[in-house]
Amino acid sequence: MQKKLTITIDEAVYEGLHKTIGPRKISKFIEELARPHVIRPNLESAYAEMAKDKRREKEAMEWAEVTFKDADYETA
Q1: Dist. CA 63–CA 69, nearest whole Å
Q2: Domain residue spans in the chain?
Q3: DSSP collapsed to 3 states, 11-62
Q4: CB atoms within 10 A of CB 29
Q5: Contacts of 50 (CB under 8 A, 6+ apart)
Q6: Dihedral sign, CA of 64, 69, 74, 76?
Q7: What is the pLDDT of residues 3-58, one digit of tens each?
Protein backbone atom coordinates (compact mmCIF):
# COMPACT_ATOMS: atom_id res chain seq x y z
CA MET A 1 0.00 0.00 0.00
CA GLN A 2 1.35 3.40 -0.91
CA LYS A 3 0.75 6.67 0.90
CA LYS A 4 0.95 10.16 -0.57
CA LEU A 5 3.39 12.53 1.14
CA THR A 6 3.79 16.25 0.59
CA ILE A 7 7.23 17.66 1.30
CA THR A 8 8.75 21.11 0.94
CA ILE A 9 12.23 21.51 -0.51
CA ASP A 10 14.38 24.30 -1.87
CA GLU A 11 13.60 25.26 -5.46
CA ALA A 12 17.16 24.53 -6.60
CA VAL A 13 16.94 21.02 -5.14
CA TYR A 14 13.62 20.46 -6.88
CA GLU A 15 15.02 21.65 -10.20
CA GLY A 16 18.05 19.40 -9.75
CA LEU A 17 15.86 16.39 -9.00
CA HIS A 18 13.60 17.15 -11.93
CA LYS A 19 16.57 17.58 -14.31
CA THR A 20 18.74 14.72 -13.02
CA ILE A 21 16.24 12.08 -11.91
CA GLY A 22 13.29 12.94 -14.13
CA PRO A 23 9.84 14.28 -13.32
CA ARG A 24 8.10 10.92 -12.87
CA LYS A 25 10.94 9.21 -10.98
CA ILE A 26 11.48 11.52 -8.01
CA SER A 27 9.20 9.61 -5.60
CA LYS A 28 10.95 6.31 -6.27
CA PHE A 29 14.37 7.96 -5.94
CA ILE A 30 13.51 9.49 -2.55
CA GLU A 31 11.94 6.24 -1.32
CA GLU A 32 15.07 4.26 -2.22
CA LEU A 33 17.23 6.79 -0.37
CA ALA A 34 15.03 6.79 2.74
CA ARG A 35 14.18 3.06 2.95
CA PRO A 36 17.43 1.79 4.54
CA HIS A 37 17.23 4.48 7.20
CA VAL A 38 13.70 3.74 8.34
CA ILE A 39 13.02 0.06 7.62
CA ARG A 40 15.15 -2.40 9.52
CA PRO A 41 15.86 -5.66 7.73
CA ASN A 42 15.37 -9.05 9.33
CA LEU A 43 19.04 -9.62 10.15
CA GLU A 44 18.66 -13.29 11.00
CA SER A 45 17.27 -14.17 7.59
CA ALA A 46 19.74 -11.82 5.85
CA TYR A 47 22.69 -13.54 7.55
CA ALA A 48 21.26 -16.97 6.68
CA GLU A 49 20.96 -15.90 3.05
CA MET A 50 24.55 -14.62 3.01
CA ALA A 51 25.80 -17.88 4.53
CA LYS A 52 24.41 -19.77 1.55
CA ASP A 53 26.95 -18.02 -0.70
CA LYS A 54 29.85 -20.46 -0.43
CA ARG A 55 32.32 -18.31 -2.37
CA ARG A 56 31.61 -15.31 -0.15
CA GLU A 57 31.96 -17.42 2.99
CA LYS A 58 35.30 -18.83 1.78
CA GLU A 59 36.63 -15.32 1.04
CA ALA A 60 35.42 -14.08 4.45
CA MET A 61 37.13 -16.98 6.22
CA GLU A 62 40.41 -16.36 4.36
CA TRP A 63 40.23 -12.67 5.26
CA ALA A 64 39.52 -13.48 8.92
CA GLU A 65 42.42 -15.91 9.13
CA VAL A 66 44.86 -13.34 7.72
CA THR A 67 43.51 -10.71 10.11
CA PHE A 68 43.94 -13.00 13.11
CA LYS A 69 47.53 -13.78 12.09
CA ASP A 70 48.29 -10.05 11.82
CA ALA A 71 46.97 -9.54 15.36
CA ASP A 72 49.60 -11.96 16.69
CA TYR A 73 52.35 -9.53 15.66
CA GLU A 74 50.86 -6.45 17.28
CA THR A 75 52.51 -5.20 20.45
CA ALA A 76 50.66 -3.60 23.30
Answers
A1: 10
A2: 1-39, 43-72
A3: HHHHHHHHHHCCCCCHHHHHHHHHHHHHCCCCHHHHHHHHHCCHHHHHHHHH
A4: 13
A5: 56, 57
A6: positive
A7: 999 999 999 999 999 999 999 999 999 999 999 889 887 888 888 888 899 999 89
